[in-house]
Prior knowledge:
71% helix; 7 helices; mainly alpha; Glutathione S-transferase Yfyf (Class Pi), Chain A, domain 2; globular
Amino acid sequence: SIAILLYLVRKFKTPDHWYPSDLQKRARVDEYLSWQHVNIRGKGSKLFLTKVLLPLLTGQPLPPEKLEGVTEELNVVLKQFEEKFLQDKPFIAGSEISLADLVALVELMQPVGAGYNLFEERPKLAEWRRRVEEAVGKQLFQEAHEGILNAKNL
C-alpha cells in the first residue's frame, strides 16, 4: 500500500530521490500516487482480472468485446500517464527515479503478465520502463515480477 511505502521511506531515511524533500518534486510524486489508484491500478488490474483470472475461475473464454472495452479503458489512462506525468522527463518527478515510478511500473506489469504488451507501441513508455528497470537493477526487477509475468500460464 502507498501508506506503508511512505512509512518505510520515512522510517529508514531512504535516499532523497525516492520521496524528494523538494516540495515541487514531492508534490509530483504525491500527485501520481493519489491519481494511480483508480487509473493505472484500477484499469491495469481490471484487465488482468478480466483476461486471466475470470476465465480461470469460470472455465469460459472471455467475450472479445468485453476484453476490447477493458483494454480501451487502460489505453486511455496510459495516454494520460504519458502526457500528464511523464511528459518529456526521464522520470515522473524529474531527472531521478522516485517512489512514483516504482509504483507505476509495478502496476503496469499486471497487464503485461496477462499477455498485453502495453509498451510495444508506446516508445516513450518503453524508454521510461527501461530507465526504471536500470535504476532498480534488471535482475531484481525480473525476480520481483517473475510470478506476475508467469500468471498467464496458470
